[in-house]
Amino acid sequence: MPLYVVTDDRHAGEAIAVLARWLFRYRSELAPLTTALLLAGTAALLHHGHRGLWPDVLALSVVAVAIILASGRRWLDRGIERAYAAVVAVAAGTWLATATAYGPASPPLPGLLVAATLICGAPWWSHRRRRSRVRIERTVSAWPDLAETIGLAGSRILSAVVDLWGWRARLALKRGQTVSDVINKLPAIESGLGTRPGSVRVEPDPARADHCVLHVLEKDPHARPIPWPAPTGTSVTDPVELGVFEDATPVGVRLLHRHALVAGIAGSGKSGILNVILAALTAYPDVVIWGIDLKGGMELQPWASCLDRIATDPRQAAELLADAVTVLDTRATTLTRQGARLWIPTPEEPALIVVADEYAELADESPDAMAHADSIARRGRAVAVTLLAATQRPTQAAMGKGAVRSQMDIRICLRVRERRDTDLILGQGAHTAGWHAHTLDAPGKFLISAPGFDVPRRARAYLLTDERVRATTRAHRNHRPRLDALSADATAHTTADIEVIDAEIIADDPEQALWAALLEAPDKGLSVSQLMKTTGMGRTWVYSRLQEHAHAGRVQQVSRGRWHAAQRP
Q1: Could you read off the pLDDT of 318-334 as tens digits, one per residue?
Q2: Residue 508 reports pLDDT greater than 60
Q3: 208-217 β-sheet, strand order
Q4: Which of 58, 211, 287, 371 is the most buried (most CB within 10 A)?
């Protein structure tokens, strides 16, 4: 089925572009309809100013028919095809001449045009399908000789079906052959079939080890970027739609209670995948997002207004991950007390997802951060503390050390430079099993290994423009949830950002204690829970005073829920 991408009314330009691409892609299938519309438009123009030319129009159609019958074999080698072209020319010329004289809207000309379009279009559409079937039948007939040439002697095609993008066949292998043998012969198969490199897909048959499905894509369904249609879920418990497979089915993954890895070389589309995920998560009212971006915040900065916290250097990353471990421990204790095994997110007790871009840098610059990440990977899923790591460098040191890689059961692999990197990202033996990430040929194309996705199928991620990112953050930044009180208080008690606050000031003047704390706050600011502890006052009182200072320009909100003075000593 075709890729239908629906955009909302706020982006009419994108909808028009998608429609234009669709019309161009199916220009051949729409040829009868296009011809009818051109005839109607031409007849309207001629009737309006040159209705006396109808004999000339009729004469031109007779000349056209004569040319088709006399010399048409140069481009139409079959007599039946020349006869079809002549009949169409006669019908079109006669209708156009009549419509020129009397007007295209004069009865019964509109009805005759519709009827002629359907009658003349039926052989056109049938002929296209028949030509495809004939081509596939020839391939099926030639397969025994082709199989001998490419090293799959004894295999045979059981059935073949023409589809929108090419054709697919069910292949029976000789005893002793497996789908791995077919995968290893993919370049030879493409050469033997005369197709473009990278156009053949192989899928195992779940019922028979000696059968597989061969899919030949004569047209690339992912040749163009696919605009992001908007989030389809309403909660972090729903799957996040990342893009579409080559058969137009959506790629939806559930991030709750799972860790995820996104990896690929520079320019492969890693940032695009993160944008799609963040665009969905920021719309959910039951998930708090923390970010780590060791490019100085360059990648995650557009989402900063929707992030509860963001770390941009190794020290801040270590502190953020340490606080995530504290949240993990607090929630584990709470679940133990309640006799429960899973943290079920709600807007009041949201899930926590830590998005770590350039994750490999942590291995080089912050061993403490890596240790905290390892703890989150091992123990965070049940308590809804999730790690989403992205990297451009899938090295052994970054991907194969500790528990992090082994605990990530969602793995999104974009283009890699070397075949062995596929195994580093997707697991040992992935390349041999057909996960050929090194052949992905455009940004945003990816392979996904996750529960429910255990067969190598190519997909392409949705594309979010910068404008869509800005619109999404504006729509959701004022509606983001906060950590539950227990988790927020736990992280406040583990951070000693304020070294000295005079206890007498707290007792005598909470206002002065609040201002002193904001002046001494670090660059990342202080959380509301920390300010509550410092002043000895409640959350409502602290929020009220912060808003007063913010309106007066005395304080700044560094990130979601974290503040410091606008001018500090």
Answers
A1: 889 999 999 999 999 99
A2: no
A3: 156-162, 166-172, 208-217, 200-205
A4: 287
- What is the arithmetic mean of pLDDT over 155-161? 89
Question: Could you check whether the bond before residue 522 is cis, i.e. omega within 30 degrees of 0?
Answer: no
Q: Is the pLDDT at 118 greater than 60, yes or no?
A: yes
Q: What is the per-residue pLDDT across 55-66, written as a single tens digit (0 to 9) for each?
A: 888 888 888 888
Question: What distance in Å separates the CA atoms of residue 35 and residue 38, rounded to the nearest whole number?
Answer: 5
- Nearest 5°: the CA angle 48, 49, 54 is 90
How high is the mean pLDDT of the chain? 83
Burial track 373-386 (b if 16+ CB lie within 10 A, e otherwise): bbbbbebbbebbbb
* Strands 260-263 vs 385-391: parallel, antiparallel or unpaired: parallel
Among candidate residues 416, 363, 408, the one with its CA nearest the CA of residue 387: 408
b/e burial code for range 304-332 (CB count within 10 A of at least 16 → b): bbbbbbbbbbbebbbbbbbbbbbbbbbbb
Q: How confident is the model over 223-229, as a mean pLDDT?
A: 89
* 162-214 confidence digits (pLDDT tens): 777 788 899 999 999 999 899 889 999 999 988 888 889 998 888 899 999 99
Q: Is 433 helix (H, G, I), strand (E, B) or coil?
A: coil
Cβ(376)–Cβ(354) below 8 Å: yes
- The token pair at 446 is 């990816």
Place of tokens 């904001």: 518
- HSE of 528, CA atoms in CB hemisphere, 13 A: 22
**CA angle, residues 345, 346, 352, in degrees to nearest 5:** 45
